[in-house]
Amino acid sequence: MKKNLIVLVGLLLVSCTKTLPVIDPDVITEKTLHDTDDPAIWINPNDASQSIVFGTDKNTEGAIYAFDLNGKIIEDKTIRGLLRPNNVDLEYGFKLNDSTEVDIIAFTERERQQIRVFSVPDMKPLDNGGFKVFEDAKLPEHKLPMGIALYKSPETEKMYAIVGRKSGPKYGYLYQYELVLDSLGVKTKLVRQFGEFSEKKEIEAIAVDDKNGIVYYSDEMHCIRKYYAEPSKTVNEIYCFGEDYFRRDIEGIAIADYGDASYLIVSNQQANTFCVFNVETNAFIKEINLGTLQTDGCDVTTVPLGETFPNGLFVSMNDEKNFFFHDLAKLELQE
């Protein structure tokens, strides 16, 4: 009887998912060569309509693709020759010296066991070929970086890269590195190890709410975990939530900040949908279908990006070697 009930519940969940109306994208990007995974949005401060969406092509012959807002590949800003770049993130205002700040993207390069850092939009490497991560790990699979999120402290203006991996220990799964500038250039300094792991699958998607100093990450078959981003604060978990709303893998995370309200948008991968939560209360709000398949990564901005995306932009990976762009108003977050 119990087994039949579980099957019935599963069928009802499938049925409910299928009834969700599809919200069609405004733009579908040109295809990458191999396997898309994770995007990051750079907002052009001089002309928002000329902003760039970066997206990983997760393969041994991989790349970080640059797309314009029409979904066309910008070849001279695309980084090729990478060994399995997995996740990418972007942050603004990294200090190169007392008078110069640059925007940066950072991404994991799994097969080289390192992270990379480039300035944007000139796409110059700042890492002298890469920064090694998880160097003290004993097991080979614990050395393979996957997820990454950048955090700029509003208290100290220090910049950090928070990095996850293919597999790791039950405690201290994430490593947090400060990006440090000295006379020889940019370096990384490990400042803490934190983050609990259920040991059910893996941890890939990481996102940081800079304004509130909070790290969110997907413990894929368990829950969305929530920690403080400041290294000086407690490493104890704040909350573990959302597990009842996902079919199986909890994947990409994006934070839409409207000032008076913020929303967490999380990929419900096997259901081909997204779950929306209230950032302040962690409460589930709704589930939406954006037409993507098996979404890994996503990103969002509430900043208007010209005529095509006047209400902001939501970008999501689609399992057909491309990314979907939606005007943010279509998600109806502020109903």
Automatic annotation (TrEMBL):
InterPro entries for the chain: 6-blade_b-propeller_TolB-like (IPR011042), B-propeller_Phytase (IPR003431)
Pfam families, alphabetized: Phytase
Show the Gene3D superfamilies listed in the entry: TolB, C-terminal domain (2.120.10.30)
Name assigned to this protein? 3-phytase
MF-aspect GO terms: inositol hexakisphosphate 3-phosphatase activity
Source organism per UniProt? Jejuia pallidilutea
Q: Which domain of life is it from?
A: Bacteria
Q: What is its EC number?
A: 3.1.3.8
> Which keywords appear in this protein's UniProt record, sorted alphabetically?
Hydrolase
**Origin organism lineage:** Bacteria, Pseudomonadati, Bacteroidota, Flavobacteriia, Flavobacteriales
- For the keyword Hydrolase, the answer is yes
